[in-house]
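Quick log. Single chain, no ligands specified.
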Amino acid sequence: MTKKRILIIEDEANMRHMLEVLLGKSGYEVKIATDGQEGLDAIERERFHFILCDIKMPRMDGMAFLKSAKEKLIDTTVIMMSAYGTVDTAIEAMKLGAYDYISKPFKTDEVLLTLKKAEERERLKSEKGKGTTIIVILPLYEK
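-> predicted structure:
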C-alpha cells in the first residue's frame, strides 16, 4: 500500500516536529513548510493527499495560502489549524475549500481521527463512479 503524502504548513517548530513525528509513525509520508509561501512552493513541486495548515503565520498566513492554492488543490484535502481561530474563521476556511478545522491545542487523536475521516471521504468519492451498470434486454413480442 502506498503511503499517503501529507504537507504540514506550520511556523511553530515544536508543533511542526510533533506533527511530523506523529504522522510519520502513523504511516504518512510527511513534508514540512514553515509558512504559506513555502507551502505554495511545495505544492508546485509535489502532489499531496492532505495538507495540515496553520492559519496564523508570518510572510503568508494559512488563509492567503488557501486562496492562492485553491485551483491547485483539486485532489488534496486541506485541514486548517489555529489557536486564534473563531467560528467565523472556521466557516471562512471551509468556504475557501478547507475540509475541516482543528482548534489548537488539540489531542493527537483528534488529528488522526480527522485524517481518517478525510481518507474515508476520499475513498468514497473515488468509488462513486465505479458502480456496476446492469443492462436488461427483454424480448419484444408483436401480437
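Helices lie at 13-25, 36-45, 62-69, 87-95, 108-128.
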